[in-house]
Give the backbone structure.
Amino acid sequence: MGRKQRITFRKVQPKKAGENKTAADIIKELKEGSASPSDYREQSLKIHGLICAKCGREFDFKNRHLLTVHHKDGNHHNNPPDGSNWENLCIYCHDDEHSRGLLGDYLKGK
Ligand SMILES: [Zn+2]
Ligand SMILES: [Zn+2]
């Protein structure tokens, strides 16, 4: 059996474009890029607005902490950037949605 010959040659790479990012670039990426767990809330609030999808209560920057992001499929790791799995619910409706229990964890984070 001929042994497989492994040819490891390196392409000469032009300097990676990502290496000299400006702070602005990074911020831009953070805003547009994949939603990290702590980020999806902001994303969802931005996409769906500061309003509870269930009771229609509106929120503003002063009480926005009462508005939480519900994952429609129940999977907190499923965070499509288009917001299709998110629903903004006030904590009361959210609590209701989960029929108690889960939200305790949810509000503690992680
Ligand atoms: Zn509500
Ligand atoms: Zn939920």
Summary: The pocket of zinc ion (ligand 1) is lined by residues 52, 54-55, 57, 89-90, 92-93 (CB under 6 Å). The CA atoms of residues 74 and 98 lie 9 Å apart. The first helix runs from residue 23 to 32. Residues 50-110 form one domain.
